[in-house]
Amino acid sequence: MDAKTKLQTLQHFIGGEWTNGSNTDTFDVLNPIDDSLYCHASKGSATDINNAVTAAKAAFPAYKATLPSERERWLLRVAELMEERKDELIACLIDEIGSPIQKAMFEFGKGLTMVRAAAGLCRNVRGETIPSDAPGKFSMSIREPLGVVAIITPFNVPLIKISRLISNAMAVGNTVVHLPSELAPRISMLFAKIIEDAGFPPGTFNVVSGYGHEIGDDLTSHKDVNFVSFTGSSVVGQHINEICAKNKTPNTLELGGKSPTVILADADLEKVMPLAARSIFMFGGQACIASSRFYVERPLYDEFVKRFSMIASKVGMGDLRDPNTVIAPIISERQRTRIKNHLKDAVSKGATVAAGGEWEGNRCQPTLLTGVAEEMTLCREETFGPVTSIYPIDSYEEGLEKANDTEYGLSSAIFTNDINKAMHFAKNIGAGMCHINGPTIHDEAHVPFGGNGQSGVGREGTDADLNAMTELKWVTVQL
Ligand code: NAD
Fold this sequence. Notes:
Blueprint: H1 3-7, E1 9-10, E2 12-14, E3 17-19, E4 26-31, E5 36-42, H2 46-64, H3 68-84, H4 86-97, H5 101-121, E6 128-130, E7 137-145, E8 148-152, H6 158-171, E9 175-179, H7 185-198, E10 205-207, H8 212-220, E11 227-231, H9 234-247, E12 251-254, E13 259-263, H10 269-281, E14 291-297, H11 298-314, H12 333-348, E15 352-355, E16 359-360, E17 363-364, E18 367-370, H13 377-380, E19 387-393, H14 396-403, E20 413-415, H15 419-428, E21 435-436, E22 456-457, H16 462-468, E23 470-478
Parallel strand pairs: 1-5, 8-9, 8-11, 9-10, 11-12, 13-14, 13-20, 14-19, 18-19, 20-21
Antiparallel strand pairs: 2-3, 4-5, 6-7, 7-23, 12-22, 15-18, 16-17
Helix pairs in contact: 2-8, 3-5, 3-7, 4-5, 5-6, 10-11
């Protein structure tokens, strides 16, 4: 990272202006590989949030009236500028949140498809004609944007999240106030600069950096916010859900997970093993859809543990700019402590470490546990690190039952050649997403992405966001 970035103090982007905001307070953003200073960011206040919402509200009537072709052009320009600034965006993903280059490139590519897919939404904000029982009455629905949309994102896949959610919200005619993770504000500011340079009118997009626990409520409870899109932990999601319920603010919540993978006896381990590894080790397990529970049918169990342990011991933990590196530093001291506590608790209660378990700097080794029991914290809670548990099962039915034994319901996977069992699993798993013979980690711009229970409310993706971020108005004409 260059010295210029280090000395930089990120500013908010409000009403088309870059500003320090209502005060001169800043906070440090650290590079998680060694906790060195990455940059400073302006510390937003309630006043800054209010100013951003006011700017978004003021910009809304004119923006709502823009032509689909204008919004489409601006969004396609965003995609072009992302490609032009690819190196800068990727460097930021590496140094701000510790992405290995492989994950940073993947995230950049996904983000780009999210923006391009959103451009296609602009011409699809449609209502319909409706038959009427009243003689001579012409009846129809028209679809309209909601107004000011608040978009709150986590640290782990910031570019995917902002590319998708901001683009979809603005494609359908909403204006936006964005609160990035305090651990990853710079990637959002680079995106804001792209939006500005793409020509979106001032005030249509606003971003305030700061601590979510200090200013988040000012945003989600603001009377002029018409929709909240939140991605983050289940605890914060629950809190936001309560605020939104009180104010009747519609929202989508994309939260944590404890996603299961079931491997039946007829599965081909040659094909399963690299996908199993990808399911949990990508970005050091800091993925909401990571698979933190593997249920393996008894005939394959010992071989699966053996092969998985071998893979785990070889997963790349080198320089983040080395394409072979997979394991990322864990983002913060708080999160590292959480992983350490989960491991300590499990081992003290009798779990066996089949691979890993140690730390190298801020990185946790790829870790496999067997003998994990109900009373261990990591049996049920999201660990959010490169740590997974492997359990033997005696039948498909037991696998389904155990996979469903969770408060979460985000992603899921099953490996088998038995199409009947695979489809039975897909229909009966209590998760929002199910992948047959594929890893739990998968996402595309236009799919209904999301979970149930503690994993969230609603879905995101082009069609899902179109529905969630607009509303239908019924209109009749007496002829
Ligand atoms: P987090 O909940 O700590 O923070 C997420 C965001 O919420 C941050 O921007 C933070 O500033 C903000 N925030 C904190 N308090 C707030 C408040 N009171 N009001 C409004 N905003 C507030 O989560 P994190 O550690 O950044 O991300 C990891 C979590 O996110 C994991 O649980 C992971 O599973 C989940 N996640 C879910 C998805 C999904 O699509 N389901 C995707 C990525 C991450």
